[in-house]
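Table 4 source record.
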Amino acid sequence: MIKPRSLERTAMIRLCAALGIEISYAPERWHSTLLPIGESTRQAIEAVHEALRMFDAEPFPVAFDHIEGDTLKPRKGQRSPGAFQRALAARLARCGIALPAYAFSLHLNLAYGGTSVRRAAIPLIEWRVDEILLIESGSGRHIDHGCWSLSARQGAFAF
């Protein structure tokens, strides 16, 4: 998964207040799922660790500019999150990790369990994803199983 940083979480909390979204899910746990791994056995977790030990990927931007119900939806035209997700899935598959069927669609749920028909443009919420996390989630808990930094391979020039 990827998670917004503190600054973006603060903007999301303000957005919830402005739109009347009751925060029923701790903001520290807000995330976007890139890829479900399936069962969280010790063997599966170790296989993911081994596969990602040498995974080489660059940071990428994500941007959300509208909301549907209680879910942030991405700005149109973003290619980087999908390209990253496909590279991640390919890496895990090449390493022999059987992945469940998953149709990736970038989004971020701000609340769960509600039934809202809200559709609105929002002030842009964006950040540069510079790490991915392996989190076991379910039954209202998150267990951290690892974090991998993404490193830029291209230098940046200050023009």
